[in-house]
Amino acid sequence: MAPRSRTLLAVIGPGLLVAATGVGAGDLATAGFAGSRLGVAILWAVAVGALLKFTLTEGLARWQLATGQTLLDGAITRLGPAVTVVFLLYLLPWSFFVGAALMSACGVTAQAILPFSDDPDRTRLVLAAVHSAAGVLVAWAGGFRLFERIMAVCVGVMFVTVVVTAAMIGPDWMAVARGLLVPSIPEATGGGLTWTIALMGGVGGTLTILCYGYWMREHGRTTVDELRTCRIDLAAAYAGTALFGIAMVIIASGMTLDARGSNLIVALAAQLHDGLGPAARWVFLAGAWAAVFSSLLGVWQAVPSIFADAWSRIAGHPTALNTGSTPYRAYLLALAVIPLVHVTHPLRQVQKYYAVMGAAFIPLLAVTLLLLNGRRAWVGEQRNRPATVVVLVVCVVFFLLAGFFEVRATFWA
Length: 413
Known about the structure:
Helix content is 78%, strand content 0%. The chain is mainly alpha-helical.
């Protein structure tokens, strides 16, 4: 595919997609709950989390541009076929719980905007199914350009509304500046350290980082000459992700929130209504809906490509990836339908397993990048620099620690 003209969307398109997909219900809820417990003093953690995710995604881009292989294909080729089995054993349950969590989040958020029934469980299930069907339609028949334009609209809505809501709060801007520039971890009931680590780990997605490689290909980025564009793209994406997370912490700071998951989003909207009036509630809900629906669209569009990539290796004939292939469409339908059986279960239970599955992926990704990008024979001049190695090692240590806290919080708290 020939490189596209250098419009703004062509430059920042893949990063915009990975940012929109990575910022979902979990990020909203984690930032909201951490902000309500710890206030704006932990804003620095959002920026650090975005920097770590930038490093991981940039490493993926370097591998793909240097070798012409997706990171998954490279891991299978260089580290052995057992990677395929292990990865699929991870991907299948991840898809189930993430699919259920995203559909539930869309249902809960849309229900708060349009409560068409007195039965909340039925309303949530119907709205979840409608959102899932819309995702299938866009991924199956809409084409990549339509998908990208819809995502751009969602990104615009989610960022503008959430940032505007944060500004309407009228925060202490000096405290905000200190929270960004002076790292500190306030004491809090429930553990300031635990929620700070959760906030850092919750910025920017987990397995959805792999989607960036497939969206790079859609934009015709196939040589190392495009690495500078990818870095600009990712810098803009993760700066926007950090801004979104910062705005969420500001909105929730000073509030008392006991709800979890997407119910926390609804609780936030209710408190904004009480404090700032109905307009603030509607503005915030519009942004929250755009955030969770764009995450669903991104997962529905790209995760089947990841599965098709792995499946082609099992089948023994790696092929060019496309959204019309049988493995892609079969996985898309399974992703859109099977998790519906779990949507009526308590949302906190769904997100519990979703969070744990996500926590396990980032350390594995960081180790893979250390191995694959660490050898000149494989990536040439694009191998890891010493500073990158340090950051990747920090990622391994930090996200293992974050995973421990996530498991402890979800199962034993």
